[in-house]
Each structure stands twice: as structure tokens, then as C-alpha cells.
TrEMBL record:
<feature type="signal peptide">
    <location>
        <begin position="1"/>
        <end position="23"/>
    </location>
</feature>
<feature type="binding site">
    <location>
        <position position="72"/>
    </location>
    <ligand>
        <name>a divalent metal cation</name>
    </ligand>
</feature>
<dbReference type="InterPro" id="IPR013658">
    <property type="entry name" value="SGL"/>
</dbReference>
<keyword id="KW-0378">Hydrolase</keyword>
<feature type="binding site">
    <location>
        <position position="268"/>
    </location>
    <ligand>
        <name>a divalent metal cation</name>
    </ligand>
</feature>
<feature type="binding site">
    <location>
        <position position="160"/>
    </location>
    <ligand>
        <name>substrate</name>
    </ligand>
</feature>
<dbReference type="InterPro" id="IPR051262">
    <property type="entry name" value="SMP-30/CGR1_Lactonase"/>
</dbReference>
<feature type="binding site">
    <location>
        <position position="217"/>
    </location>
    <ligand>
        <name>a divalent metal cation</name>
    </ligand>
</feature>
<feature type="active site" description="Proton donor/acceptor">
    <location>
        <position position="268"/>
    </location>
</feature>
<dbReference type="Pfam" id="PF08450">
    <property type="entry name" value="SGL"/>
</dbReference>
<dbReference type="InterPro" id="IPR011042">
    <property type="entry name" value="6-blade_b-propeller_TolB-like"/>
</dbReference>
<keyword id="KW-0862">Zinc</keyword>
<keyword id="KW-0732">Signal</keyword>
<keyword id="KW-0479">Metal-binding</keyword>
<feature type="domain" description="SMP-30/Gluconolactonase/LRE-like region">
    <location>
        <begin position="70"/>
        <end position="351"/>
    </location>
</feature>
<protein>
    <submittedName>
        <fullName>Gluconolactonase</fullName>
    </submittedName>
</protein>
<dbReference type="InterPro" id="IPR005511">
    <property type="entry name" value="SMP-30"/>
</dbReference>
Length: 364
């Protein structure tokens, strides 16, 4: 399979994009991808005419690297023109260099890093969501500083996603995923009574700003930072995005459900563009039908909804209206904007990293 994939890439002139992964022993499947040759890319599905201005007619989805087991937490560094993305089960962080068009290992033994962010000084902020269970910052000299690992004297659960506000406060979610099993770290008992959203002040004070969500996941601010959006993984009855008002002191109020994934979709990590639209990682939530179906003579409990119809990126307006769906061959867990002009959408999707140029720019 790898040899066939290598020949396919060489024929397509894409060897440089995947060479770093394929040159070393693969730690996971290197997923073959055949880009669409027609313009506009039929994988970009417009659900509302207002989205048409964000689609670039002559831009198609590209696969930049593969060979991961569960890609998460992409973050772009404009100073070096590179992107970092977590490969959680393989316990490493990968690096895509858009100048060299290469994909390589940035950090091994990454403490099962999940979400990543860039602070206002250009430093990497990381959620180590198992074993160490902490928020860290990588200094410019490479030294790692622990920013938070306990709340009220008890260990954090499994820090998941993180965002840095313009006032240098760090906001992160703390569900249980990293300690629920052995796939993305090590199983452990939670010490916190609830799964919270935290605000870490520049002076080191840690505050639980939201305590009533069951396994909060992705989070992001509106362009003016007056609203905070948070995905609730165990929403009722579906996964949801909640909206909160944020005051000048960092307190949140006025909880409103903005998006309900009523089609059995799995909202995950997301980003907000300058116009306030939410670009959300999407895929099947894994829920099963209540009754089995006959499949090849066996009674099988099949998935509710079809993963092949759900895998990709959903775009919602600031009011929660579906605007577009970017279809991918793998479930997208998280994404970010990057590139020299901030208009390249990077999508961390299961085994692979994909990208698409759009007429939208990240809010921060």
C-alpha cells in the first residue's frame, strides 16, 4: 500500500509533500488522496448563497501529509511559515513547513498533546491531555514552562483545546477523553468533580468559568471577543455549540445554544473568521441505531447517519445558520487558518492534514 501510494504521489508531483512521512517507517496508515481536477471543487458544497463569496473558484482541497493516527490541534506560526499538528495516539507533534512543503516530526514524547495555540508573543501553548494533564508553554529557547496542572489542589482532567485572548488570558477545556482509556494516553480516575472551561490569567490565577457542560471540547471567541463559543461533547440530545457573553473581567453569562448537531454529526474543534462565521470540524458521532439491520445475513447495529456524508468541515453563520460543507475523505477533528495571507484553511483529519485556500481569514 505504501509503495503504491508513493508511486501515485510521484506521478502527481506531490512527493515533497509526503516525503518526510513516507521516508520513515509509518506509524499509521498513509491515506491515499486523489484531489478533484475540476474547478470549482465539488467538495465545497454551498448550503446558503451567502457563502459563495468565501469560495475561491480555482482552489481545491490538498493533502499535505498523512500517516497519523488521530490528528488534532493544528496551530499556525506566521513567523516561520509552518504549522504544528498533534498526532495524539502516536504521542508526537508533527510539523508542516509550507516553504519547504515538507511534513516531519516536531516533537516526540509530547505527553499526548492535543490542542495547541500561539500566544501573543509567538510561543506555543499546548494541552497535554494525558499522563501529565497540564497546560504548557514552549519558550523561544525551547524550554517548556508548566502554566497549570491543578485546580483547587486537584489534578486537571485532560486538557483538550485552548485559545489565547488578546488580553493574554488563556482559556481551555478540560473533559475526560485523555484519561478514559489507553488509546490517547493512560487511563486514570478524575479528581475534578466536573468537566470545566478554565480561564488562566497572566498572573497564574486559574478560574473555572464554566462548570455545567459535560465534556466541553472545542472553543473560540467571536472577532470582538465579546462572545465565547464552546462545544459540548455530551450534549442533550446532540452535540452542541453554546454561546456565552464575556464581560471585561472575563466572566461569562447568558448561555444560549447556537448550533445543534441534529444530523448525528460530531462537532469538535473550530475557528472563527473575521466575519464571525464558525468553521467547525465535523464527522459521525458514532451513535448506533436502536434496532439492528440485516447486513450480509448478520444482524448489525449500524451507525445513525453515514460517516461518508458527515466527514469534513461545517461552516455556520454567527447566528448558527449552516452556510457550507467542505467534504473530506476523513473525519475532521480540528482546523485553523494560516498561510502568508491568513486565508489558507488547514484541516486536521484523522490520518491526514488537508488545506484549502478560501476568501476568509481567521479572526485572530
Amino acid at each position: 500500500m505504501i509503495d503504491m501510494f508513493r508511486r501515485h504521489l510521484l506521478k502527481g508531483g506531490l512527493a515533497a509533500a509526503a516525503g518526510s512521512v513516507l521516508a520513515a517507517p509509518a506509524l499509521a496508515q498513509a491515506f491515499p488522496f486523489k484531489p478533484n481536477q475540476r474547478y470549482p471543487d465539488p467538495a465545497v458544497e454551498i448550503l446558503d448563497p451567502s457563502f459563495a463569496k468565501y469560495r475561491i473558484y480555482s482552489s481545491t482541497i490538498e493533502q499535505l501529509g498523512s500517516g497519523m493516527r488521530w490528528a488534532e490541534g493544528p496551530v499556525y506560526f506566521p513567523e516561520g511559515r509552518y504549522l504544528l499538528v498533534s498526532d495524539i495516539p502516536n504521542n508526537r507533534i508533527m510539523k508542516y513547513d509550507e516553504v519547504k512543503n515538507s511534513f516531519s516530526v516536531f516533537r516526540e514524547n509530547a505527553n499526548y498533546a492535543n490542542g495547541n495555540a500561539r500566544d501573543r508573543q509567538g510561543r506555543l501553548v499546548t494541552c497535554e491531555h494525558s499522563v501529565t494533564r497540564r497546560i504548557t508553554r514552549t519558550e523561544k529557547n525551547g524550554r517548556i514552562t508548566v502554566l497549570a496542572d491543578k485546580f483547587e489542589g486537584k489534578r486537571l482532567n485532560a486538557p483538550n483545546d485552548v485559545v489565547v485572548r488578546s488580553d493574554d488570558t488563556i482559556w481551555f477545556t478540560d473533559p475526560l477523553f485523555g484519561i478514559n482509556g489507553e488509546w490517547e494516553g493512560s487511563r486514570a480516575k478524575p479528581e475534578q468533580a466536573t468537566t470545566n472551561v478554565y480561564r488562566l490569567a497572566p498572573d497564574g490565577k486559574l478560574t473555572a468559568v464554566i462548570t455545567d457542560l459535560v465534556n466541553p471540547n472545542g472553543l473560540a471567541f467571536s472577532p470582538d471577543e465579546k462572545k465565547l463559543y464552546v462545544v459540548e461533547w455530551r450534549g442533550t440530545p446532540n452535540r452542541s455549540i453554546w454561546s456565552y457573553d464575556v464581560d471585561a473581567d472575563g466572566r461569562v453569562s447568558n448561555k444560549v445554544k447556537l448550533v445543534d448537531a441534529a444530523d448525528f454529526g460530531a462537532l469538535d474543534g473550530f475557528r472563527v473568521d473575521r466575519d464571525g462565521n464558525l468553521w467547525c470540524g465535523y464527522g459521525s458521532n458514532g451513535a448506533l441505531n436502536a434496532e439492528p439491520s440485516d447486513v450480509g445475513g448478520r444482524k448489525v447495529f449500524t451507525l445513525r447517519g453515514k460517516p461518508e456524508d458527515l466527514d469534513g468541515v461545517m461552516v455556520f453563520s454567527p447566528a448558527g445558520k449552516p452556510l457550507a460543507f467542505i467534504r473530506l475523505p476523513e473525519r475532521c477533528a480540528n482546523l485553523c487558518f494560516g498561510g502568508p495571507k491568513g486565508n489558507r484553511l488547514y484541516m486536521a483529519s484523522s490520518h491526514s492534514l488537508y488545506a484549502l485556500y478560501v476568501e476568509a481569514h481567521g479572526a485572530a
